[in-house]
Amino acid sequence: MKFYGNDVATLSPRRLRPAFIDDPQMASFLEALPDGAALLEIDGTIKLVNTKLEVLLNLAKSAMVGTALGKHVKTAGPVMQKLAASLQQLKRIEVSGVLNSQRSVVASVSILRTSDGGAYGALLTMRESARATKAPGSEGFRFESELPLTEVAQYVETERLGDLLRRASKAIDRGSPVLLTGDSGTGKTEFARHLSLRSEADSTPFVHVNCGMLSAENFDIEMFGIEPGSELDASTRGKLGYVEAADGGILFLDQISDLPHSAQMKLVALLETQTFSRAGSSQRRRIRIRLVAATNEDLNALVEAGKFRKDLFYRISVVNIPLPTLAGDRELLDLLIERHLQRINQGRSPALKLSSGFRDRLLAHPYPGNMRELVNIIDNAAAAADDVALPEHFCVPLEGATSAGANPGAVEAASGAFMARSFKDLVHEFETWVLEKSIAENGSKRSAAKALGIDVATLVRKTKRIQ
Ligand SMILES: Nc1ncnc2c1ncn2[C@@H]1O[C@H](COP(=O)(O)OP(=O)(O)OP(=O)(O)O)[C@@H](O)[C@H]1O
User: Fold this and answer.
1) pLDDT digit string (tens) for 265-275?
2) Which Pfam families does this UniProt record tie to the protein (predicted)?
3) Candidates 3.90.550.10, 3.40.50.880, 1.10.8.60, 3.40.50.300; CATH matching 330-393
4) Is there a contact between 409 and 429 (Cβ–Cβ < 8 Å)?
């Protein structure tokens, strides 16, 4: 009989009991869970959803209940595809990945079974994650979840950016490296993240490495990890390197021109062989990574000057994607202003409006800091204005810091003493003053970088020069 019972369960899957789903205690149980959660039939139909899941997926309950999990793959992204596939096979799964909303999540599907083993439903859970629970804790690794939700911009895609994205994802899908070039703040990092979502490649993982934070000494350990139990392994658990963490996905090498020379050579070997050894082990491991590199330097000039290896340059610059400056792209500027305003107003009452005077200033500004600068200017105005941003709320990061009397260079300039100094020294002194002041005022390098509208890796690199 039992055998028969199991057989019936296989032929005609059991279902969640309606009384179970309709019981208000069940809904309150789901609400009490610390994660986003949904109760599913084993055919994937969503029966109950808690509020946390609605927020994570940015989908209303009414849009989910009664529909198939697989229907939401487009909205949510490949994470959902994996969950739906594992449910079809009645397998438990835990996956991490990035939703289309750019939130990094850990999600699971657990099969609910009766005591005789028959599956009658499934529980889906999802929570926002530090993507690298499996990756090393190091300053050079930017955990996706370190970006607070409010800081993750909705990606704005102009026709030009769309073309570039298509070109780059084709290259990635062919297995070719992609080099993103463009001034600071032109959106290279954001572009790389979107590339990982669009590419046919498995979009998880996406490992973002700030090369400016890798030294020649720590390169092997950070990139290749430590073999568990080897003499280098203090913890006995080993350490996962960036390369291994990126296996099957994208390794994003940001500010690649900052890689130490010896490390450049090791990177060439990695790209040529697609193999590596963990520190403390001689065993070669094969990996499949897609490389996206970014720089705001002129790599050609660095090669000429002997500061960047030619062989690495040729390896990474197969497909070059130049990102436009904001000042040179009016469509991008208009779209960014509207989207950023919408985003700010989502949690704001009364909503912020831009006066025509403020808007004129936004349109006329040259944006040396590109998109990052625009975001800062609007955020500053949102903090200063009540409901209308007026021209006096237009404040450019650093503009205030250059007023006479505020910094040593300005004091010397006023007294004429600066004439005796080289331009380079004066600029260096001013930069040192700005960086130190900002770090002291903001409490950390990361917050200082944000306040100054520069990348944290750039700030770290510049402060290294000061020491
Ligand atoms: N297409 C986009 N739509 C909306 N916001 C964007 C877009 N691209 C970039 N941003 C925002 O602009 C800012 C700068 O982007 P990002 O960090 O990607 O620039 P970057 O070129 O990598 O800078 P750096 O060279 O200094 O590292 C970020 O706040 C980012 O969220």
Assistant:
1) 999 999 999 99
2) AAA_lid_14 (PF25601), Sigma54_activat (PF00158)
3) 1.10.8.60
4) yes
